[in-house]
């Protein structure tokens, strides 16, 4: 079958909850993907930063293949021999005492919110039902009813009521707004250190460290959603490290699965994590041995290939070369590490530009109409980056 035939099948049989770029991917390796006709593309989305280690990284594939000959699923009713080594590695890499493994990102978000609410009652002495969590407008925390209850994006939010109560939305980037929103029923402040889906919105310098200080003095938990920004994407292992603003709970997902399977987790120290006792939270698939083998290998790749340093250096280069090209239509180029966005004028529709990029061999997707995110796998080589930049600049020049 040809690309057109696969697209027709998707349109007929899949709910229309996405508007994809019309390209069919049937093979991938590193930072490149191919369609059924054999055309080659650079992947500048990386599955929304879930393939930081590159497609089919040999070390991760080997770990998965090996585990597929042993055992893949046990449930947490029993122990398995892969979860412990995986979580020990995750804790060492993140610098936390414990982890709670789940599957998709939004489940890590739910887990963090549940931990905070329980902590409010059990450690702060609040009445159950009174707990409030401060979140930021423009956020993206996933698609469950709880996550969309925090959303201010009409596409995510409209007609899904009744919404989960207990959230207070404040403008992103204003520490003063957070300070004013906190009252005696507040249990946590929950934000992304850089808002990814909102269009790579980087908060003012000092915001994260100020939030850390506000939360510490108010006695509330600071929780960061690092599902998209984490695991080297922004040029550090985690984006909060730019300001030393270590959160009490961190939500992780996407690249934790090494591009192979959904793996997520929260990490925290014991004083927070011990609010969970047997039976109070769980997941059939969370902590499964296949995920343990893959997650461990995924972290090993980030560490041994120093992908944080690579992302930092390549990101500087990407932004410098794009701004040196002095492209007329572009208002801002922003980002950290290899999480970057090109912002066009308000009202500009970037979809045709994404189609033109595709024709040139670059896959990227617009967000919010006038913004295109550029986030290649962190294993992209200098030579590949040069070739990709040349293509991107030539398309954006005529956008
Ligand atoms: C992608 C994402 C999520 C949701 O992850 P899923 O695996 O799609 O559930 C949550 N938060 C952020 C910041 C994300 O980018």
Would you kindly provide a written description of the structure presented here, covering whatever features stand out?
With 399 residues, the chain is an alpha/beta fold. It has helices at 3-13, 46-49, 58-68, 83-94, 105-122, 145-149, 154-157, 175-181, 207-218, 270-273, 289-304, 307-324, 351-360, 382-397; strands at 27-29, 32-34, 40-43, 98-102, 132-136, 167-170, 186-191, 221-225, 249-252, 264-268, 330-336, 339-344, 362-363, 365-367, 371-374. It folds into 2 domains: 3-56 and 306-397, Aspartate Aminotransferase, domain 1 (Alpha-Beta Complex); 58-304, Type I PLP-dependent aspartate aminotransferase-like (Major domain) (Aspartate Aminotransferase, domain 2), CATH 3.40.640.10. The strands form 3 sheets. The protein has a 7-stranded mixed beta sheet, with helices on both faces. A hairpin with a 3-residue loop joins β14 (365-367) and β15 (371-374). It is globular, with a radius of gyration of 21 Å.
